[in-house]
């Protein structure tokens, strides 16, 4: 049986998405690294996001090369630098959320391909990365957002980063269970992190003008059911611009393709499928059919793209959103199906 090709009826053809796959491949280095664009900066989170997009579009070997690059370049403490260019570190601090995301990418690769080989091969990298991240857990359960270049953890946490980290830990626990590794300490740390996200939102630095801080507790799986629906409804009018997309920040007339795509996946995760599809169709105005890529953002009042860049992670986010709402690949439920609150993990962690 021939697998279905990714497409979004009425908005994106399979051929257009094949071009997006070519766009991503064009920007991947021979080493497997995927910078924002060829010769541009690379961070470990966006690199993984781009690899996930490649896997969805049928380029599993290229995605595996990206994950192997991550494993080869991982520091002994389990981290990666926050930014590098052409292999030269330009920001030596480490973002905890960025380091955790390898687990999400690898579990997604397994779901898309059905193969466990890469999980087995790169398990040591996942184990080290999660260990590094959880060593930065603060007394209240939240995760310090970064570790400085001289390896001092920061004293504050970000809601977006901690929510994404919770999802990555859930994916890491799936990998561990699949491979037969017990990690009860990860369960306990995730339970504490979940509690901080749900019960103590004041524990996190105020980034409320950013749309990510609004929807990430849903996307990262900390909230589901009525609590998630209530949160999304609460600031819908603040961040969603009908016919345009989702704002990056509440006080600017600027919609962005990646944040809009992540919101699509959050909506899909709680069953708001019609809203998800509508929003995904709206942001096709940011597509460049000539390249297959997507402009990072669009300033509505000025009728202008800004910044004038097409990033790999933006294209990948759109691809992941299309997969989520169409259910095309085995990885389409990576953000829908792997939520802490749905798996009785909290009970397991307490036992």
Automatic annotation (TrEMBL):
Protein name: Prenyltransferase
InterPro entries the UniProt entry points to: 6-hairpin_glycosidase_sf, 6hp_glycosidase-like_sf
Domain of life according to the entry: Bacteria
Organism name: Barrientosiimonas endolithica
